[in-house]
Specification:
Elements: E1 2-7, H1 10-21, E2 25-31, E3 35-37, E4 42-44, H2 47-54, E5 59-61, H3 67-74, E6 80-84, H4 92-95, E7 102-106, H5 118-124, E8 129-136, E9 146-153, H6 160-184, H7 215-224, E10 232-235, E11 238-242, E12 245-248, E13 259-262, E14 268-271, E15 277-280, E16 282-284, E17 291-292, H8 293-303
């Protein structure tokens, strides 16, 4: 089966590897153009582009699938196109290029969480279970009929990054199964049923924490925005950023934003909220790198420094 692979971020690389390993003829890889990264804003190929180059695959870089790109894809004589987080719309003319159309791997249980950030929203809104589906791409936003799905429980300490890593693996296997079923003529997509919900792109403002809110709500927001853009609070000299947060329902004697360091071989940082305490596992003070919370706590204990996140 001759296919196009379309994807851009790291989470899509796993699917590309699975498709190559499964023996699909990947005619080309479509990805977003190089983007400026780091403080020096160095133009850098996408993770998918870097992997495609390592695999010796033809690469098409496009911010938009216009008439010229569509003509390039038509010349590839494609049976199908597999798309995983490409980051751009596929117009109707391009949808009709592959004989079997475009098969999208989406990291939610559609119609729940259509849009750019489904895993992040599933965590923020407290879903117990999420998953991944393969569906036939249409011009509507994640509205096409579904070929198959896999499910994944959301744990209390799951961040969006950790959950996406697991889903990228199980979802990649699902994508391979779907394309193999298409090739064998036995794929049977089913229309989506029920009302959907929208998961727009996560912004920096979405990642700001408010320690006057309930602990569970704060933890979900922190985990849903980790590792990017990363949960944060504003203090007088800049921002504190956080890794995962652990809830301590038994600790209710701290005011919102009040920080207590519990000494020991591995000091523990507790922060008060509107309900009970949270324990950051990692902390990034203003102007410094992310560090283990216990290491940050040792520094405070040694210097006798007091900190508040209120």
């Amino acid at each position: 089966m001759r296919i196009l692979f379309a994807g851009t971020p790291e989470v899509a690389v796993t699917s590309l590897d699975h498709l190559v390993d499964a023996g699909f003829d990947v005619a080309a890889v479509l990805t977003r153009p190089d983007a400026p990264l780091g403080r020096k804003r160095v133009l850098t190929p996408s993770p998918v582009a870097q992997r495609a180059e390592e695999l010796g695959l033809q690469i098409v870089k496009a911010a938009k699938i216009d008439a010229q790109v569509t003509e390039q894809l038509t010349a590839l004589d494609l049976d199908a196109a597999a798309i995983v987080a490409y980051g751009g719309l596929v117009p109707q003319d391009a949808l009709q290029v592959p004989r079997h159309g475009w098969i999208n791997l989406h990291f939610s249980l559609l119609p729940q969480w259509r849009g750019a950030a489904p895993v992040q929203h599933a965590i923020i809104f407290g879903d117990d279970i999420t998953g991944a589906v393969t569906f036939q791409l249409e011009t509507g936003l994640d509205t096409g009929p579904v070929f198959g799905q896999v499910t994944e429980p959301i744990g209390a300490m799951d961040t969006a990054g950790a959950l996406l890593q697991r889903l990228s693996d199980s979802g990649s296997r699902l994508l391979v199964d779907t394309l193999q079923a298409l090739d064998a003529g036995v794929a049977r997509p089913e229309p989506q049923t029920g009302s959907g919900s929208y998961a727009p792109k996560i912004t920096d403002a979405d990642a700001q924490l408010d320690f006057t809110r309930p602990a569970t709500e704060i933890r979900r927001r922190a985990h849903g925005t980790s590792p990017f853009p990363g949960p944060w609070i504003k203090v007088a000299d800049g921002r504190f950023k956080f890794g995962a947060l652990r809830e301590h329902p038994q600790v209710t004697d701290l005011a919102p934003g009040q920080v207590r360091i519990e000494p020991g071989k591995r000091p523990r940082v507790l922060v008060g909220t509107g309900t009970w305490a949270l324990e950051p596992t990692q902390i990034q003070p203003p102007g410094k790198k992310m560090m283990d919370a216990a290491d940050w706590a040792r520094g405070l204990l040694a210097n006798g420094t007091e900190v508040s996140f209120a």
